[in-house]
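In practice, a research group might receive sequence data for several interacting partners and want a quick structural hypothesis before committing to experiments. The following worked case mirrors that situation: the sequences arrive first, and a predicted assembly follows.
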Amino acid sequence: MKFPYSETVLEHFRHPRNVGKIENADGKAIEGSPACGDMVAVYISVDPNTNKLTDIKFESYGCASNIATGSIITELAKGRTLDEAKKITWKQASEALGGLPKIKVHCSVLAVEGLRSAIENYEERHGLVKEKKPTTVEVVRKRLKKVMNPMAGLDLVRTNLVRDIEVKDGTVRVVIDLPPDHQFASAIKQEIMEKIEPLWDVKEVTVEFEG
Amino acid sequence: MLDRQQVYLDNSAATRLDERVLEAMKPYFFDKYAVATSEFAYSQGIEAREVLDGAREALAVAIGAAPEEFIFTSGSTESSNIALKGVALALGSRKGNHLIVSKIEDFPVLNSTRALEKQGFQVTYLDVDSDGFVNLDKLRDSITNETILVSIQHANQEIGTIQDIENIGRICHEKGVLFHTDATHTFPRITLDVRRIPVDLITVSAHTIHGPKGMGGLYIRQGTRIAKWVDGGFQEFDLRAGLENIPGAVGFVKAIELVTPEETGQLQAMRDRIIDRILSEIPDTTLNGHRWKRLPQNANISFHFIEGESITLHLDMHGFAVSTGSACFSRSLEGSHVIFGIGGDHERVHGSIRFTFGRYNTMEDVDAVVRTLAEVARELRSISPLGKEEKEG
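A structural hypothesis for the assembly, expressed as tokens:
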């Protein structure tokens, strides 16, 4: 039989390592959404004395390359320091898997981003952000690029759903160009809160729907 | 099952050729390989003409048409291209520039209308309801004085929904508009008689009924204005140029002869069993398409919280071939327009699996794939971040 993936990808796909949730994780992140076809959640435990990843787990909704990449990054990252783990690239993950089809880059890159975001989430929550850049409209916009518009399968910014962003004294206000009773309004609101709230200088996030 | 390694449940994509079809075709590759175009040059050409005419007559009879109303093509893609572009070319400057199709047509129709839009034609893409049906009143309201052609499939390639083409045709004819239907997945299992159903053009193909690939046909009702789209020689009543595929035509006829109502009944029994078993035994599953008004050989089910390419790959490793509407499966990375069309969200699209049965499948195949699917769904759900909150809560 022939498969479109390498032996290693298939092995990780069939027997993914470190699957699951960590209850009370020190850091966590979700990248992607059902709308883009793939979604990965990464949970980490960190030893605050050594700054090493003592545990890492992932969950995946996605195709074989997404599952396999999620699995391999947990192996690559476990036991590393946060700084080392942050530097793991998609290329390294792909090489460790014996290569991935080009067309599958977008599905597999999510896991790598998931790991970085989980580490950032830990750093933000534990006051470890080295350069404390103040949150600006641009910072918020960049984060909103990771929130999916479920109707289009593309992010909110690209699909012009972000009507307005205001940042003032630790309060962030985001206005979305959809009616408040839209079927995806609450899901979008929740995703926005999850992306913006952890920023170190943000005290309050409000999401409004006007459409 | 023929090969222990593989249970093939993707018979709407391709079917295994029936040996009897191959046997019927063989003489026309080796002993009688002349083409009908040579009928005035030598006797083999005359024989080829007779064989081709005989095949044409058999195809025409199968839909209640006259032989001169049926042309052979290289398959349903070409047939639908000829139907849409041929009519547009013939009537575009004469009658109007508007066409109507459903949103869930297969790509030969949808991409022909997109190509025509670039040439300045206007196209209405009709919505369908949650089962995939076109609304007849909306169709009637969409027809204008400019409308030249309505193209609505006989049954859907993915979710199997069978349209009410009799009433669709009636509306078209009341309004004086031509009606084309893509019958790739229904012919000849579901009767379509042009003496009873007001349809002007029908796309058919041999590849869905254990016939040869690269063989199809187009019914063109007498008097239909249609321009030649494939240029070259004068074959097929000067409507479609190209060397006559005589072995293919003979194989097509044999393939039709071998389709029986009993066999179609068996496929339907497999369909009903897989639908009933999956919906009752595997949680969080949704049937796509109508429960009864669907192709006898088609089941399409969405598995929530998990993604289709992962499901198909797991099934493949267990020896089952199926297809999915997931974006990850397609080269274009676009999810199924059909399941979006019936109002499915992304998760329902990406988790959809199509099972299509054929002559070489058995009830044991159905039971085996359901068993494996239950395991695969459980495994993939155990690693999915979705669906957990609902269960915990």
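Before designing any experiment, note the following. The CA atoms of residues 73 and 298 of chain B lie 25 Å apart. Chain B has a mean pLDDT of 94.
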